[in-house]
Amino acid sequence: MASSGYQLTTFLYGLGGGRTRMPVLPRELPTADQGDWALGVEEGAVLVGGVCPAVQVDGTTCGSAAIGLAMASDGTAGAESRFPAARTQRTPSPAPREKPADPLDPVATQLAPEVAQATPEPHPAEAAGEAQAQGDSIVENQDSDDLFSVSEEERAATARRFGELQYQIKARTNKRRWLFGWPTQWGTAPWGAARVMTFAGHKYTHRMVVDTSLPQATRVLTHAADAAERGFPVLLYTGGDTSRGWGTAVPRHVVVLHCPPLPPTVPEPILDESERTGIEHIDARLEELSAKLKATVDRAKGIEERKPLFIYDPATGRNTLVTLDELINKGVDPSALGGWNHLTWAVVPTPARVKDASTIQENS
After folding, report:
1. Measured between alpha carbons, how far is residue 136 from residues 19, 60, 131, 158, 222 in Å?
2. Which of 81, 182, 231, 266 is the most buried if burial means most Cβ atoms within 10 Å?
3. If pLDDT is split at 50, 70 and 90, which confidence band does 260 have?
4. DSSP state of 348
């Protein structure tokens, strides 16, 4: 996507920035369970706990929403401390499901001990309601078979808790370091996100993306895609350039690059003739899901031999299928990047320390 303007990263690169060596890629994680992947497993709308749209609560919490859902997809933390699994709009399930209990409260203990004591930044009570309202049409237009039977009050309460979680995460990413904290009206800085973000015992670091330098962008974004394919969500910052005003030439939005786990292969059971009739509807739903997943994989493999990559955008609460080539050559539709057309920064995982690695091995 051509642009006649300049970015902050272009100037910083000219001054010698953006040349730091990328960290060593962590080892590939064991295949996660789809039910643990809060970021969603296919294209479409992502629901928090299957209840409400996973959207940011205001214009400054995109980074907090991205961090929250990314860390919620960590299946190594233990079921009692994980964020409830979100799922996409069109993911059918053949088995009866129960309403999720206590949708968001356990997350604070997963993120860090001090989050439980963090005081959320004051915000209007109706903010979460507005975020939830953005997805009303998504939920109302869904097949009733594919949605939990929940009340409007429960959906509103879940949206409110998700909004509170975003403010709690933002309080951590923006807290004072040395003399000053990061201004809350500026959202989440890449270094603040890297300080808070963890996944499967791995800490994160940040690297500038200079998409006006093809070699530099290729190096960073290929590393980001490789990390995503190994099971680690990666935060990507997006923005504009001076052609849209100097205020847009900086990182303005945060999305998540991730590679959802594929479902395990289940052998077909041998059934009596009487049993086959009773589960015909289940077979049909399973075939439908299998066809959708195969189409997703085939579409990605038709362009490059890589696992399917998705971008979760907290502005819309939706997943979009992308390829590495599109990321590098500015071919991703701006609608998947919060309306921006440049990738400006990446927050990527680092190798686990020896002590952390032993802990991960025990949990595997």
Report:
1. 45, 22, 9, 14, 36
2. 231
3. very high
4. E
